[in-house]
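Chain A, query sequence.
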Amino acid sequence: MKYIEYRVNSKIKPEELNSIIELVGWKGRSREEWLKILELSSFHVSAWCGSHLVGFGRIFEDGLMCMIYDVMVDPNFQNRKIGTTIMKYIMEELRNHNFHTTGLFAWNKKPELRKFYKKFGFIEVSHGMQLKDK
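Chain A, predicted structure.
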């Protein structure tokens, strides 16, 4: 197995993020959107195989509450504990703060993600809503 390097809050190009987000089947974002997302995220961790971005996850917070977003691993590198390691970095960062609540979204098309996040202490809740796509 090739060596994976993990970087915290390092510079990432929007096109690198779009390449991985599209591989996992999510909608890409513009360069400006990614730049704003990275600017406003208080913490992010990326996984690299050489110069190739293979994993990513981030925290967005307001001091009291936080959300975990965009935890993703290139499908060609899945099942190698990269997602688990990204979450361990995120969980360590959460332990350094006293957030009132921490949430995340688990993609409905991948029900196995719920089991994955439960390993880190997350539980399912039913009291959520989302604005319908425009």
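Residues 41 and 60 are 5 Å apart (CA to CA). The beta strands are 5-8, 43-49, 52-61, 65-73, 101-104.
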